[in-house]
Amino acid sequence: MKLYLCFFFCFGLMASPLEWTKLKEKDGISTFKKDLPNGALISFKGIGTVKASLKKVFNIIMDTQRAPEWVADMEKSQVLDWVKKPHTYIEYNHIKMPLIIKDRDFISKVNMIKESDKTILINYSTTDHKVNSKNIRGEINGSYFRLTALGENETLIEGVVICDPKGLIPKWIVNLFQKNWPYDTISGIRKQALKKDLIEDPRYDDYFFN
After folding, report:
1. Percent composition of the chain: helix, strand, coil (DSSP 3-state, to 5)
2. What is the CATH number of the domain that holds 197?
3. pLDDT at 36
4. Which pLDDT belongs to residue 100?
5. Backbone angles phi, psi at 154, to 5 degrees
6. Is 107 contained in some domain?
7. Is residue 120 in some structural domain?
8. Phi/psi zone of residue 29: left (φ > 0), alpha (ψ -120 to 50 degrees), beta?
9. What is the residue-averaged pLDDT of the chain?
10. How many structural domains comprise the chain?
11. Residues 58, 171 contacting (CB under 8 angstroms)
């Protein structure tokens, strides 16, 4: 931290090392990275639009059972328990890893906030919950989706991931794989939105859409 302050005062015109840096843009999806102050992991952010309503995109993300259809390497996803309906629950995710690496699972507290009539924030943070699993338990903190309606059939997605799979995987390898998360995730939601058999969960209507 002292080193960062030294650079700040000595080179006032330089960008802070904790600011978002744009890596690329592809298919209208922008990918950014930000160094974290507490270690070697890097946070990644994606921004892009989906040709679907806010309600539809929200329900795609909330449909945990179908998450493996659009989330890269997702083997299984499910709601373990509701903390407070309809906006806070505990989610379990099982991530398939390459053959030589043990699978990971993540248990997250998912909290949804209606920021305005046009914007919903979905926060993910690691929590404890009893699950019988032989996988390595990873941690996910400070991750979120912010969904903003741009029109009746267009939604802006801002997604951030800060994920530590734990175990012996070198952090540079973790960063190498996670840098694709923004593009893969928003692209996956775009493809999912084109499917004709999507179901909207009515339990969210009164709280988020009325």
Report:
1. 25, 40, 35
2. 3.30.530.20
3. 85
4. 85
5. -150, 130
6. yes
7. yes
8. beta
9. 89
10. 1
11. no
